[in-house]
């Protein structure tokens, strides 16, 4: 009999601390900190010769005690990778992460539009758990009966409910044709699905038409998402006699800021679209000039709790310049920017380097963007093909 599911909140801070202890302690088993720190610290922006980094005696004490008492086989390369992850996690920023070579390859591929194979779901953190937000059409999860609102509990019998969205997504991806066992919790009961991974046929941007209204759906900001949308607008909108645009950013977790700027340049001509602040210095980012062919087109932007990062940049700028009406639910609230730093061994450091504000100076970090017209879309709506948010947008 499957054990009864008991809902409980998972502390992000506790998870980070536990991970750091496990990873760093593991590393100490394999090698003295004083021997390896000069090669690791520069990757983390720390000068290994500074007065702060000279005294590692407390860490050496832990290592010496563990090395003297530990019994078992040690993989030095694996321990060093664990140490790097632990050091970065100790920064306490959920957006800053170290990725090993496999993780970095998958991350870079996704940013370039190569999603690979998986089960076809959009996920998001809700009420302390990673839940299914939407099942994508013509993909394995929908066909098997996975539903919006399901809590992701186990993957291949491994409990993952306390892990991050990115970590769970990585475990669900894999080679096309391979199987993955997914256990979800629905209405307090466990449900199991055995799914065969398929290439995910979810493009980053596409347009459908309802009369003279163009419904533009952007699921993520790949490096070429903005240019793809610009081409669609230039090639189709005039012949379709488009009078109104609905820009659907629901569930869009972000991507390249440059792609967001390309999209905004269709509405905003050369003005500031965001301000980035780092180490006391503020740097404005401007829309491109002479591309704003939608500047005077009535626009509605659809958002929800999964709308984050680059998609919030787009919604925030359009709201500040009165270029659009925002409809839906309050956005995620990710008002910080990450920089990708390539490291040795084809590894990658994703590090928060700046915070950002809307053109009018509004910080949305941990607050999100509140819609002009609040409309809820329930899990029941999603599972029964109802979309009250889109219906409301069409009426404006």
Tell me roughly what share of residues is in helical segments: 25-40%
Largest sheet: 6 strands, mixed
Identify low-pLDDT runs. 1-53
- Alpha carbon gyration radius: 23 Å
> Which oligomerization state do the chains in this entry correspond to?
single chain
Q: Which word captures the global form? A: globular
End-to-end distance, in Å?
A: 51 Å
E-strand count: 19
Account of the protein in words:
This protein is an alpha+beta fold and about 400 residues long. Helices cover about 30% and strands about 25% of the residues. It has a six-stranded mixed beta sheet with strand order 10-11-12-15-16-19, sandwiched between helices. The chain starts with 11 loop residues before the first helix and ends with a helix. Residues about 1-55 have low confidence and may be disordered.
């Amino acid at each position: 009999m499957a054990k009864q599911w008991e809902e409980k909140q998972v502390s992000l801070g506790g998870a980070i601390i536990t991970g750091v202890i496990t990873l760093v302690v593991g590393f100490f088993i394999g090698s003295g900190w004083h021997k390896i720190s000069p090669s690791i610290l520069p990757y983390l922006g720390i000068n290994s010769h500074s007065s702060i980094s000279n005294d590692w005696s407390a860490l050496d004490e832990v290592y010496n005690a563990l090395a003297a008492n530990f019994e078992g086989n040690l993989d030095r390369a694996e321990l060093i990778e664990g140490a790097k992850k632990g050091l970065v996690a100790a920064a306490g920023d959920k957006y800053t992460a170290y990725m090993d070579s496999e993780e970095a390859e998958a991350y870079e591929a996704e940013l370039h539009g190569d999603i690979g194979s998986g089960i076809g779901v959009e996920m998001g953190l809700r009420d302390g758990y990673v839940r299914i937000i939407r099942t994508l059409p013509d993909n394995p999860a929908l066909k098997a009966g996975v539903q919006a609102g399901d809590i992701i509990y186990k993957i291949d019998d491994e409990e993952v409910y306390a892990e991050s969205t990115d970590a769970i997504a990585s475990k669900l991806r894999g080679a096309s044709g391979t199987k993955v066992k997914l256990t979800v919790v629905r209405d307090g009961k466990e449900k199991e699905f055995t799914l065969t991974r398929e290439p995910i046929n979810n493009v980053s941007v596409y347009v459908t038409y309802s009369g003279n209204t163009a419904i533009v759906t952007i699921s993520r900001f790949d490096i070429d998402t903005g240019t793809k949308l610009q081409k669609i607008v230039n090639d189709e909108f005039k012949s379709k006699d488009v009078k109104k645009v609905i820009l659907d950013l629901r569930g869009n977790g972000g991507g390249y800021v440059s792609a967001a700027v390309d999209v905004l340049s269709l509405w905003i001509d050369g003005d500031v679209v965001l301000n980035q602040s780092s180490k006391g210095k503020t740097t404005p980012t401007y829309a491109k000039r002479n591309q704003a062919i939608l500047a005077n087109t009535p626009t509605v932007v659809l958002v929800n709790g999964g709308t984050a990062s680059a998609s919030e940049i787009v919604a925030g700028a359009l709201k500040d310049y009165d270029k659009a009406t925002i409809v839906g639910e309050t956005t995620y609230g990710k008002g910080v920017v990450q920089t990708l730093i390539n490291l040795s061994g084809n590894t990658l450091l994703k590090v928060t380097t700046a915070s950002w504000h809307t053109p009018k100076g509004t910080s949305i970090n941990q607050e999100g963007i509140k819609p002009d017209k609040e409309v809820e879309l329930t899990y029941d709506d999603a599972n029964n093909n109802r979309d009250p948010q889109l219906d409301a947008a069409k009426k404006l």
